[in-house]
Amino acid sequence: MRRLNPEKLYVEFRPGVTITEPIVGRKYTLTHSDMTADLFLTIGLQFAYEKINTMRDEVLAEWRTNNGFPFLFVYVYVDGQFGPTVSAVRNAIFRRELPLALEAVRYGDRRFFDAYPVLDNAPIWINFDSTNSEFNRFENWGTPNDYK
């Protein structure tokens, strides 16, 4: 697994979000530059849709609860602009790069996790969205603590 270079991570907090609030509804939009390998993490009450490009290689995540228990729900769009014909390649790329993306979220919002250490043990559920049933999956990827 490639490790996060903190100097290549840029974090933006949107209005209505602080380093510790809110928990439920806190949304992450992670994008990147293929040219510079910079990562851009936007933390807000809404996803930063304006930062999503036509490649659709962003990672979206948000804090949710189920029966009062928090979990991090992550969404990736496997098919992308090229449709299902390249789903296998995109699926492989997402699976290879997701540990880095989750490390970026964990590191980029580290003060939030410091304020709520219990969230380090919350499950991470990833929705791989695809029209192809082979790649359309909902999987548990551990906890934020696994990506410290």
TrEMBL record:
<dbReference type="InterPro" id="IPR024438">
    <property type="entry name" value="Staygreen"/>
</dbReference>
<protein>
    <submittedName>
        <fullName>Staygreen protein</fullName>
    </submittedName>
</protein>
<feature type="domain" description="Staygreen protein">
    <location>
        <begin position="4"/>
        <end position="147"/>
    </location>
</feature>
<keyword id="KW-0809">Transit peptide</keyword>
<dbReference type="Pfam" id="PF12638">
    <property type="entry name" value="Staygreen"/>
</dbReference>
